[in-house]
């Protein structure tokens, strides 16, 4: 079965083809991506209206590329999967609209996917895919969650951020340091040249006894420190970046270990954009090997948003029988959608 996946929830248009058999991990046949980073850079962040318009421009050419790369045609596609939420409403509408129009034109079923489930299952696209059950550390631009994952669609939230996400903490701190958008990778790059112990920054909720996170105080501490440095800031920027990264990574590593202890699990899966962070990977690798825990990551180029993870999540949901593709082409999108809640039950929806 061939599944076409379309992602357009934020500032990346991603399209991919995944092949799924009755059993075994589905296989990535091709994927193509267009990042809007350059376009949004001038504004210091994502401009939703520009994002939607760019998705419109990119989605069909990317679909053609993916079909060509895999030697397939649209008629070979069995299911069209798309990101239904959460994300920017206008951006989501582009991918959902195109996916449902393709499904209707080809008379093929469609399937709306939760963006975070895409991230969560993206390590199954790697050369070393995990096995269920595991603890997942989901660290994206908008979400920080620790989850117990017992199988496809069987997710229990163990803890989450009560304010800013880890990615947001990277992005906001980077902005304060004048590092532009997207701040995470820029701050991480600068941090390589700095001393992580140079400044003492807060690690909120580290000893709270819960698995929740709080990162909003960090940007204030970074701002206070930057102001204190005054003219010296430029010379000490790498040290401040390294100390900021160390504070975020410290909390993520310690809480992940607590989640593993609490659940008794010996497998950790990291997913989402911050999962690309080198320091986080190094610290987790060391900590996990000390505790005899196997740790899995998505391939570096599939940590941030992409179509492959959407096609993969659809393939795994269908294979596990937790959902069937449908011919309901009257799509709606879910800009705010809690993973695990029923998207069609408006009681649980905030959108
Ligand atoms: O998962 P993602 O692509 O988008 C969301 O679904 O939100 O994550 C994007 C986030 C951004 O906050 C970005 O700054 C961060 O991931 N990020 C990084 C790195 N690469 C991306 N943060 C730290 N270090 C990195 N190398
Ligand atoms: Zn994402």
Q: Can you offer a commentary on this structure?
A:
With 351 residues, this protein is an alpha/beta fold. It has two domains: 2-121 and 303-320, ATPase, nucleotide binding domain (Nucleotidyltransferase, domain 5); 132-297, Nucleotidyltransferase, domain 5 (2-Layer Sandwich). The chain has ten helices and ten strands. It is globular and about 65 Å long. Mean pLDDT is 96; it is low at 347-351. The structure holds 5'-O-[(R)-(carboxyoxy)(hydroxy)phosphoryl]adenosine (KG4) and zinc ion (ZN). The site of 5'-O-[(R)-(carboxyoxy)(hydroxy)phosphoryl]adenosine has 19 residues, from helix 5 and helix 6.
The CATH architecture of the largest domain would be 2-Layer Sandwich
Helix content: 40-55%
Q: What is the percentage of strand-forming residues?
A: 15-25%
- What is the strand arrangement across the widest sheet? 3-2-1-4-5
The count of strands amounts to: 10
Biggest β-sheet strands, sense, barrel: 5 strands, mixed
| Alpha-carbon distance between the two ends | 33 Å
CATH topology of the largest domain: Nucleotidyltransferase, domain 5
How many domains comprise the coordinates?
2
Report the structural category.
alpha/beta
What's the tally of helices?
10
Shape descriptor reads globular
Gyration radius over CA: 20 Å
Uncertain regions: pLDDT < 50 for 5+ in a row?
Answer: 347-351
Just give the CATH class of the largest domain: Alpha Beta
Ions and ligands: 5'-O-[(R)-(carboxyoxy)(hydroxy)phosphoryl]adenosine, zinc ion
CATH homology-level superfamily of the largest domain: ATPase, nucleotide binding domain
pLDDT averaged over residues: 96
């Amino acid at each position: 079965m061939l599944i076409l996946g379309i992602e357009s929830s934020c500032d990346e248009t991603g399209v991919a083809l995944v092949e799924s058999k009755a059993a075994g991990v589905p296989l990535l046949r091709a994927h193509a991506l267009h990042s809007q980073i350059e376009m949004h850079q001038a504004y210091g962040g994502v401009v939703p209206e520009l994002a939607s318009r760019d998705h419109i421009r990119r989605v069909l050419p990317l679909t053609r590329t993916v079909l060509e790369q895999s030697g397939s045609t649209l008629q070979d596609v069995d299911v069209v999967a798309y990101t239904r939420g959460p994300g920017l409403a206008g951006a989501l509408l582009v991918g959902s609209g195109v996916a449902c129009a393709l499904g209707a034109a080809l008379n093929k079923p469609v399937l709306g996917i939760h963006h975070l489930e895409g991230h969560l299952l993206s390590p199954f696209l790697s050369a070393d895919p995990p096995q269920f059950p595991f603890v997942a550390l989901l660290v994206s631009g908008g979400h920080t969650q620790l989850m117990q994952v017992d199988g496809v669609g069987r997710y229990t939230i163990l803890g989450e951020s009560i304010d800013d996400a880890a990615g947001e903490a990277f992005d906001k701190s980077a902005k304060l340091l004048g590092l532009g958008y997207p701040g995470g990778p820029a701050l991480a790059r600068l941090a390589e040249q700095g001393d992580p112990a140079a400044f003492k920054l807060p690690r909120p909720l580290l000893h709270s006894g819960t698995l929740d996170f709080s990162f909003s105080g960090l940007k204030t501490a970074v701002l206070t420190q930057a102001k204190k440095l005054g003219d010296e800031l430029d010379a000490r920027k790498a040290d401040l970046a390294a100390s900021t990264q160390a504070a975020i990574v410290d909390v993520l590593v310690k809480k992940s270990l607590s989640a593993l202890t609490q659940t008794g699990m010996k497998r950790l899966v990291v997913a989402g954009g911050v999962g690309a962070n080198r320091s986080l990977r190094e610290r987790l690798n060391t900590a996990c090997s000390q505790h005899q825990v196997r740790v899995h990551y998505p391939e570096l180029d599939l940590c941030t948003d992409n179509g492959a993870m959407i096609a993969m999540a659809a393939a795994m949901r269908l294979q596990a029988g937790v959902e069937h593709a449908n011919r309901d082409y009257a799509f709606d999108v879910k800009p705010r959608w809690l993973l695990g809640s029923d998207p069609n039950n408006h009681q649980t929806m905030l959108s």
